[in-house]
Amino acid sequence: MDFPERVYTETEVKKARELIENGYKHDLKAEGSPEFVARVEEALKLIKAAGYYDFLRTYIRVIREIEGLSQLREQEAAIWFHVKALDDPVDDSGFMIQKAQQMKDFIEGRLYYETAEIRAVNKRIEFLEALKDKTDDQKIKSKCEQHLKRWREQPFP
Fold it and tell me: Where along the chain do its domains lie?
């Protein structure tokens, strides 16, 4: 069974959820300029190093370059990213994991308002901790520590 072209209607969401429950993984693609694809690949290397690549490709089908604001597009199972927003591979990879968690919540039918952003930020923090623990690169460890400090200072209750 193929993953739905879009994930919007109740039927499409149910089909996506069933496929994921049975182990479906997307053949994750980066679409855009050569510079964009190279920056995405750099972030994906960190996601793989932290052990989160399967999580990402379970929920995200494509990371697409756009001219507007970077965001999750649930109906496409896509992350839209502006190339200029891709300037820190550690932060970029954390953003991708955060958006994958939001897509997971969407497919599972969890309410967005009130708690979803907290779950997504906590997933990002979990990812940054894993990356920091698994990398031997001191620059990456230092960046993880900087981002962890910033994300732990979140204003959520």
Answer: 10-152
